[in-house]
Give the backbone structure.
Amino acid sequence: MTTEGTLPLALVTGGSTGIGQHLVGALARAGFAVAFSYRSSSGPADAMVAALIGEGHAVLAVRGDVGVRQDVDAFIEKAVEWAGCAPTLLVNNAGIQTWSPLLDLPEERWDEVIRTNLKGCFLHTQNVGRRMADSGLGGAIVNIGSGCNKLAFPNLVDYTASKGGIEQFTKSAAVELGQYGITVNCIAPGAIATERTAKEAPDYAADWSMITPLGRVGTPEDLVGPLLFFAGPAARFVTGQTLWVDGGVFTRAAWPYGG
Ligand code: NDP
């Protein structure tokens, strides 16, 4: 899926920390040239690029805001010039959360979450979708969702609305882009232990392990296999799907009688 002599190009949004950071490393080790964006964490981004280049991989970090078209276009243009080919894979990972009851949520926070999580996904998919279509080679787009794709979490109305949007966006994009050989799927992670989640709730891993049928919290590594599946030939006839990578936690109904 690339011009001769070049590595296939994968783009990852929000690759400087957490899940995105881990996915960038995994894709580089799987043989992709990986370009990732981030908003402000230059330190972790630079350190990761240095480490992966040191291991012999091709990695590029570009600072920019996923919700601003100019930044998105510049990120993708830079990545394509760098890699010398159209993207084969796009991972729409960047996402933020705010915590507030609906009745107190400031309008600006609502706008920021929707712009980052949902509009960011749209802007990248549109730009990369056009390039994949023009290349005649198709490609794979993987959106990172959440339990909020289907369930309402308390005090996260903006985040929940954005991830519900990702669920439907994935399906619409799959239906429209199929004609170009582009698959669009979603990975909906359960509770994943990252620096951010540990900071937000010190008992995060223990709390979520208790209600997760597989008895543990997830790690970013748990998302790698599903991502490589959607990105690879084994999933070439799979599109418009959401894969729950959650240890079963969002399959379990709230149940008043124990068990
Ligand atoms: P982190 O906060 O650790 O990482 C978020 C990444 O997105 C960072 O690289 C951050 O860059 C980047 N980012 C945020 N806003 C922007 C922006 N406007 N423009 C460019 N980059 C931006 O989060 P996680 O790794 O935990 O989450 C990653 C994804 O996984 C999100 O979509 C989240 O909703 C989803 N998810 C996570 C779960 C979990 O348990 N961790 C569970 C379910 C879903 P910077 O640091 O520079 O701001």
